Amino acid sequence: MPVDIRPIAPDDAPAIARLAREIWLDAYAEIIPQPQIDYMLAQRYDHARLRGDAADSQKWLRQAFVDGVLAGFTACEICHGEFKIDKLYIHPTMQRKGIGAALVNHAAEIAREQGFPSMILSVNKQNEQAIRAYTQYGFRVRDKTVTDIGGGFVMDDFVMEKTL
Ligand SMILES: CC(C)(COP(=O)(O)OP(=O)(O)OC[C@H]1O[C@@H](n2cnc3c(N)ncnc32)[C@H](O)[C@@H]1OP(=O)(O)O)[C@@H](O)C(=O)NCCC(=O)NCCS
Fold first, then answer.
1. Which residues contact ligand 1 via a Cβ below 6 A?
2. What is the DSSP track for the chain?
3. Which of 3.40.630.30, 2.40.50.100, 3.40.50.11550, 1.10.3720.10 is the CATH number of 4-163?
4. Which residues in the chain come in under a pLDDT of 50?
5. Which residue of 19, 25, 107, 113 has the lowest C-beta tally within 10 Å?
């Protein structure tokens, strides 16, 4: 399936935030309590913050279109000297069609261009679907982390790494 990958511009922030909400409510309903989903969406997909991220030359935000329809997005950044896929989300009706793989390949190209030997990501320990996908893409579990994100919430994650 042809996937058209384009940079996310600051003005795309509302569309990306809307898409994120739809995906999160579907993907995390059974994994993360609703108040924590609302808290994290407000924190990470605040329009002003997304606009800032899209304008930041040290962050790589990309959106994927299929037949002209926005189907998913990714956001990469440098975290403690490593190249990190910070966000990777595909619309529920468009999952398992290779769009995630296309975005990860695109992220890998950016990481290589930037001179990184590997890339990392964090994934909720209970997110089996994503862990399966990341394993398929060549990531392996490197670490476990429990991160206090404020509001009385924690993220209980695996850190996964893929050698480039
Ligand atoms: C995880 C995610 C990014 C993967 O992207 P995708 O486009 O759906 O996945 P791909 O088509 O690239 O599939 C890659 C592999 O992932 C695995 N996979 C993906 N979805 C799966 C599902 N629902 N059940 C089982 N395995 C699945 C499969 O191994 C698949 O390969 P296969 O179809 O050849 O067996 C996407 O499903 C998603 O956005 N999920 C919800 C949000 C989320 O959890 N994001 C990750 C946050 S860390």
1. 23, 27, 88-90, 95-101, 123, 127, 129-130, 132-133, 136
2. ---EEEEPPGGGHHHHHHHHHHHHHHHSTTTS-HHHHHHHHHHH--HHHHHHHHH-TTEEEEEEEETTEEEEEEEEEEETTEEEEEEEEE-GGGTTSSHHHHHHHHHHHHHHHTT-SEEEEEEETT-HHHHHHHHHTT-EEEEEEEEEEETTEEEEEEEEEEE-
3. 3.40.630.30
4. none
5. 113
